[in-house]
Amino acid sequence: MACTEMYEMENSSDELREEIGNDNKIRLWGKRWFKTVLFTLAMSLLSAVFLLTVIHFATGVQLQQQFDSQGTKLAVLLTQIKCNTKLLSKENISCEDGWELYKKHCYKFVEETETREKAQEKCSEECACLVKIENADENSFIYSAGGLPDTRVIGKLHEVYWTSGIRIKKNNWLWTADGKLVTYDNFNSIEPNNINGIENCISMSNDGTWNDYRCNGTLYYICEKQA
Ligand SMILES: *[C@@H]1O[C@H](CO)[C@@H](O)[C@H](O)[C@H]1NC(C)=O
Ligand SMILES: *[C@@H]1O[C@H](CO)[C@@H](O)[C@H](O)[C@H]1NC(C)=O
């Protein structure tokens, strides 16, 4: 019974359709065509916007990752550029206030205690490295120019300053200032003794001799850079 009714309905709609004129057919077809074009355009636009959004975020994330991984390198590079620019723009050999000139190099004696690592960081911020001591003359200059900071224990041998010297093997030392091996040294006669096997950094004592000292100890430090 239900099927018959449907058949009848279809029949009647067929009859209706036959009654529609040619004009109407064209108009309907035109409308449909227009809708299709509009729909296609809208979809294309949406796809484009979606695609651009995806590309935007993907690129953003990628750049962020690149930046994070290159962050340290970039900071180092920027410091180098800053330092080299300063060096290039310098006409006369001289040192900034608070730095001592000796043979075309500037030295800063910093009377604040830091670990060796932190001390090196502080020197870097001023385009310098921890000091490299190349010969007895330079050692004498440093010893006298460094003065006798108040906290030195008078009358007793005592570490005062960090240098850039570090142990690379049992009795092989290297200046981190330029990566060269230590050829001249002024270790105290009882040094280096490497107490507890952790004394891997070179310090200068209040008599101008050197000591191997634990790198996490806190001492004053000397920064050095080209004048
Ligand atoms: C460099 O030194 C000369 C002579 O001492 C001086 O006349 C000149 O002003 C100095 N230049 C700078 C940039 O300090
Ligand atoms: C320094 O390092 C040694 C060995 O790792 C450790 O025993 C000592 O407590 C450290 N000292 C300081 C002041 O951090």
Automatic annotation (TrEMBL):
Residues 102-224 form the C-type lectin domain. SMART domains: CLECT (SM00034). Keywords: Disulfide bond, Membrane, Transmembrane, Transmembrane helix. CDD domains: CLECT. Coiled coil: none annotated. Signal peptide: none annotated. Pfam families: Lectin_C. PROSITE patterns: C_TYPE_LECTIN_1, C_TYPE_LECTIN_2. The keyword Cell membrane does not apply. The chain crosses the membrane at residues 37-58. The keyword Transmembrane applies. This is CLEC17A. It comes from Mytilus edulis (Blue mussel). The lineage of its organism: Eukaryota, Metazoa, Spiralia, Lophotrochozoa, Mollusca.
